Amino acid sequence: MRGRRPARSEGGLHDRLAPGEIVELNRGKIGVVAKSMDEPNAGCPYCERQISQASAANAGGAAAAPIAVKSQAPTIQSFHLGTAVAFRAGVTQPRQYLPGSTYMLTRRVVGRHYLLRPDELVSQIYLYCLATMSEKHGIAVHGFTLMSSHAHLTVTDTRGEMGAFLRDFHRLVANAMKLVRDWDGILWDGSEPSVVRLETPHAFVQQAAYLIANPVSGGAVPRSKQWPGLIVHADELGRKCWTVKRPDLYFDAESWPKTATLKLKMPEDLGMTDAQVREAVAEEAERLEQEARDAMRAKGRSFMGVEKVLSVSPQKRATTPEPHAKRNPTFAVGRHQPEAYRAAVEALRAFRTAYRDALHQWRQGLRSVQFPAGTYLMRWLHHVDVAPAPG
Fold first, then answer.
1. Full pLDDT tens readout for the chain, 391 residues
2. In which order are the strands placed within the sheet that holds 73-79?
């Protein structure tokens, strides 16, 4: 199983779990191996199966059989995070969340269902969740596009809390939307959110334009200005502000503010005035939209149009072909930026190498080891020492 570690014994996997290992338990729970021991424990499905088999044999009148437990069977401390986390050191690469980093975020709806189809309540929920959670975690919001089957955001993480923001924001949206759509399953697909750090001003301009052109490139409407859902256009960057009332469902009046305010901000240190950024984004977005219209015409396809976008059933799925990405990028530098690309690759390799070295020492019992700046999950789970962010 790729990206997550099941806590069961298949070919000796059980006795290879190490203290500090993050594993997947039953029913969407996540566990952390707290210590090793030579007797069965109730936290491990493998041990529970052995206990059950021995109990069944005893109940049938057979002689009591010893419970066969691999040496160093792990004690697992389990906890629930709402949606199962797909993480295991050594399988999923560690994420680095440095304060001041700007990101492009993407999250897709399960099965490409149209559960986020534009309507007033959906927009209210999304804006309210974004406003409250961005304020809580120090996230500066630059722009977004809420499509019927996925969502895009550009943000800056001012405090290095991107992991917590993603967890809380997506959980809130999912729980509220499941009530709105009377949806019993999960809202988001099982893959991790796409988190792409924008390393240069070129990268920000191009990704901001990509968000704007998305309704056109996705075949929804011929021009982005026609998109009936939430979208931030080039002339609204760093300007637009929403004051959103608390939705009437899911959000407890005693725990959640009556209104929440979301003010768009420009990223810092772009080397351009705000007006120049808006102009550059508008030009790039128009280029992308024209390319999308030309591609639709060449394929003989027509756009859905506003009326169909608003009337399609949320239970339906997108059927347009979606190319499978060959890579899951963690950073972007923009076109024709070879030096920035090389620098980003070197920085990423240095972080991953330092992280692996620290994790190895931590697993050997050296709890005082310092993890590299930007380490998130180990700091959140185990409160490890993390180096301060540079600068």
1. 333 343 433 233 333 444 444 444 444 444 544 444 434 444 444 445 544 554 555 455 444 344 333 333 444 444 433 333 333 434 478 899 999 999 999 999 999 999 999 999 999 999 999 999 999 999 999 999 999 999 999 999 999 999 999 999 999 999 999 999 999 889 999 888 999 999 999 999 999 999 999 999 999 999 999 999 999 999 999 999 999 999 999 999 999 999 999 999 999 999 999 999 999 999 999 999 999 999 999 999 999 999 999 999 999 988 776 655 556 789 999 999 999 999 999 999 999 999 999 999 999 999 999 999 999 989 988 999 999 988 7
2. 22-24, 30-37, 73-79
Rounded to two decimals, the pTM is 0.76
Whether 7 and 17 have beta carbons less than 8 Å apart is answered as yes
Q: Taking Cα atoms as reference points, which of 282, 256, 32 lies closest to residue 143?
A: 282
Pairing of strands 370-371, 385-386: parallel
Cα separation, 15 vs 47, whole angstroms: 11
Name the one residue in this structure whose structure tokens are 């931590």. Answer: 362
Give the C-alpha separation, 345 to 12, whole Å: 36
Closest CA to 42 of 3, 82, 7, 94: 7
**Token pair of 102, please?**
């700007």
CA 389, CA 98: separation in Å to the nearest integer? Answer: 6
Beta bridge partners of 196: 104
Q: Residue 238 CB: number of other CB atoms within 10 A?
A: 17
Burial class (CB in 10 A: 0-12, 13-18, 19+), 200: buried
Token pair in block for residue 257: 């503010």
How many CA atoms does the CB half-sphere of 48 hold within 13 Å?
Answer: 10
